[in-house]
Amino acid sequence: MMGQSLALINDPILTNREIEILEYVTLGLSAKEVARHVDISPRTVDRHVESARLKLRARNRTHMVACAVKAGLLKVNESGVRGIFKLNSETG
Q1: Of 4, 21, 61, 86, which residue has the fewest beta carbons closer than 10 angstroms?
Q2: Rounded to a whole number, what is the distance in angstroms from the first to the last CA of the chain?
Q3: pLDDT per residue over 34-66, tens digit each?
Q4: pLDDT value for 27
Q5: Are 64 and 53 in contact (CB under 8 A)?
């Protein structure tokens, strides 16, 4: 049991805003594009991304998304990330 408690203590805790920003990053949006969607400055988006990256101990944005998925912080399915957008656009 001690190992389980220790694992929970070491799990990264991201703010709701960091998770929201991560969801947009997962879709490949730039800081400027994310900023437009959440109505904050691109610099603030960059700060949230860097904060999440450090908390997840990731080397870069791609690794950060992989770490977030592995930690169960992001769930990706065919409707997109939490349904914000569709991952593949349908023509027609």
Answers
A1: 4
A2: 54
A3: 999 999 999 999 999 999 999 999 999 999 999
A4: 87
A5: yes
CB-based burial label for 24 (10 Å; 0-12, 13-18, 19+): buried
* SS3 state of residue 26: helix
* pLDDT the model gives residue 10: 62
Rounded to an integer, what distance in angstroms lies between the CA atom of residue 91 and that of residue 39?
29
The burial of 17, by beta-carbon neighbours within 10 Å (0-12 exposed, 13-18 middle, 19 or more buried), is given as middle
CB 85, CB 27: distance < 8 Å: yes
Closest of 18, 11, 19 to residue 82, by C-alpha? 19
How many Å apart are CA 36 and CA 30, to the nearest integer?
10
CA distance 13 to 56: 9
For 30, left (φ over 0), alpha (ψ -120 to 50), or beta?
A: beta
